[in-house]
Design goal:
- The structure is a single chain.
- The chain is of the alpha+beta class.
- The chain is built from 9 helices and 13 strands.
- The strands form 3 sheets. Strands 1, 4, 5, 6, 7, 8 and 9 form a 7-stranded mixed sheet that branches. Strands 11-12-10-13 form a 4-stranded antiparallel sheet. Strands 2-3 form a two-stranded antiparallel sheet.
- The radius of gyration is 20 Å and the shape is globular.
- Bound molecules: ligand DP6.
- The site of ligand DP6 has 16 residues, from helix 3 and helix 5.
């Protein structure tokens, strides 16, 4: 695909963010209360960037947040920069630590203080269960409080997006749409919550593998955009699916929601498989789960799935099917996104 990759382009994360910051950024407290951001699962996926520096997407996307599953983060003043994940100190040269501290640095801009960042995820890290989304959203909220920045929600979402695209959507509960935007600086590329609730909607997490994935989303989507001719059809598919999802949500039409989300996910995976080298996140157990879902549907159970850049399957169903779905997927973790 012909996506502009002009390396001379001057717009950097730093240059966008500094326009919204005071002259000096200093902590307003020694330590903040823990902030929380939910994980989210896209029903219409974000796949492909029009700007890799700012994480600007090629298409708009729509997600559902996972209620109590997500990331809790706290920042405090410290003698040295340190990052803690789930109670363990992460080595300073570890990729995770560097990502967190580099994000803080976008705001701290060399100011003379160090920070301790403590994060707890109650979802498996890097297993396609979107912990980077909730992680960067929680980190953005924590930065906002720690430095007393008082940023507008749309700015918080746009800045969280610079940490990880899908984090733009994790600022909110319920259904959330991330509008792709058209501006070069990306400040119209942020997420907004939908007002519609859907109290009997359920998401089931089928954990095929909780290990670290081999190819992260960033590399995966860049490879797809660069090498898969099939990717040409993706923006059209995503736009049509987004429109269908809005209709499904407005009409509370679960069949339309499930069919659209499943076809959207499989279309995204088709573009991945058509990349070179090929990108197949599925494992035998992922395919076995798909077969069980299709079998359930053939037997009259309204059950659909979606999946991200990993082997895990996320089931979509309604409360009335929960007992039946649990019989078919023993040990299933079920989330009620609207409580
Ligand atoms: C398949 O947001 O993790 O989960 O912006 O490079 O950090 P970066 O990518 P990321 O990609 C998520 C991709 C996806 C689909 C989605 O959540 O919309």
């Amino acid at each position: 695909m012909n996506i502009s990759k002009d390396s001379s382009k001057a717009i950097t994360k730093e240059s966008v963010i500094e326009r919204y910051l005071p002259a000096t950024v200093v902590p307003v407290v020694d330590s903040i209360d823990t902030v929380f951001a939910p994980s989210n699962i896209a029903l219409c996926k974000y796949w492909g960037k029009r700007d890799a520096e700012l994480n600007l997407p090629i298409n708009s996307s729509l997600s559902i947040s996972l209620a109590h599953l997500g990331s809790k983060t706290r920042i405090s003043v410290s003698d040295t920069d340190q990052v803690w994940l789930n109670g363990n100190l992460v080595a300073a040269d570890d990729k995770f630590s560097r990502k967190v501290i580099n994000f803080i640095e976008l705001f701290r801009r060399g100011a003379a203080h160090s920070v301790k960042v403590e994060t707890e995820n109650n979802i498996p890290t890097a297993a396609g269960l979107a912990s980077s989304a909730s992680g960067f959203a929680a980190l953005m909220l924590a930065v906002n409080t720690f430095y007393g920045l008082d940023l507008e929600p749309q700015v918080l979402s746009a800045f969280a997006r610079m940490g990880s695209g899908s984090a733009s959507r994790s600022l909110y509960e319920g259904f959330v749409e991330w509008q792709m935007g058209v501006r070069e600086d990306g400040m119209d590329s942020f997420a907004l919550p939908l007002t519609t609730r859907w109290s009997d909607l359920r998401v089931g997490l089928v954990k095929v593998s909780t290990g670290e994935k081999a190819v992260d989303s960033r590399s995966g989507m860049n490879r797809t955009v660069d090498t898969a001719h099939l990717y040409q059809s993706w923006p059209l598919q995503a736009a049509a699916d987004l429109e269908r999802l809005h209709r499904a949500i407005a009409d509370q039409n679960f069949t339309l929601l499930g069919e659209t989300a499943e076809q959207n996910a499989l279309s995204m995976h088709a573009t991945m498989i058509a990349s070179w080298p090929p990108l197949l996140y599925w494992q035998p157990d992922s395919v076995a789960a798909m077969q069980s879902i299709w079998q359930a549907r053939a037997e009259g159970v309204e059950l659909y799935f979606t999946m991200d850049a990993g082997p895990n399957i996320k089931l979509l169903f309604t409360a009335d099917a929960e007992a039946e779905v649990k019989l078919r997927f023993p040990g299933l973790e079920v989330v009620a996104p609207f409580g």
